[in-house]
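Example record

The entry below shows one chain as it appears in the dataset: sequence first, then structure tokens.
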Amino acid sequence: MITEAILTTTARLLSGASVRWVDSQPDTCQRVYFANHTSHLDVVLVWSALPHEVRKLTRPAAAKDYWSRGIVRPYIAKIYNAMLIDRKEIKVHQSPVDIMIREIGRTYSVIIFPEGGRSSGETVGEFKSGLYYLAKKRPDLELIPVYIDNMNRILPRGEFLPVPLLSTVTFGPPLWLEAGETKNEFLDRARAAVLKLREREN
């Protein structure tokens, strides 16, 4: 508990992050928080932006190849109760979506990054199909778009130490997979929801 508080406070101080909720509120109901991805700190930042009662019921999905290396990263991943997803060796009936559904059960929410990898931060990349299949297999989950602003400048690709700048984490209104909506239609609409939050920053 103390270690969690220290790391959460440190993440907020390093990022200078302010948190906004647009047409939504923090809630302990099961949700999928899906965000743009520009920095390895994004996982920590979105999780830390949630209130404690919500945070303890939310698990970030993180890349196993990155967060299982060394001593510090696995320790941090354990504190944040992250589910480490193997992006390289995907087995039958053990897809990342299947693993997430099993891990969250009927209790936890999850934080994901549908672009599948980090982008430059200048735009939001095309979404991979995971979010669609997650919404299809668990239609009861609220899907909350999240836009992270400026983290690509605070922790540029290849850098270890963050640059002291201000960032914003904006949570938007929930959406769901609509009846008859195709995969491409849904992914375009979900990406547009994140981009709409970006427009509010400008």
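Notes for this example: The first strand starts at residue 17 and ends at 21. The chain has nine helices and seven strands.
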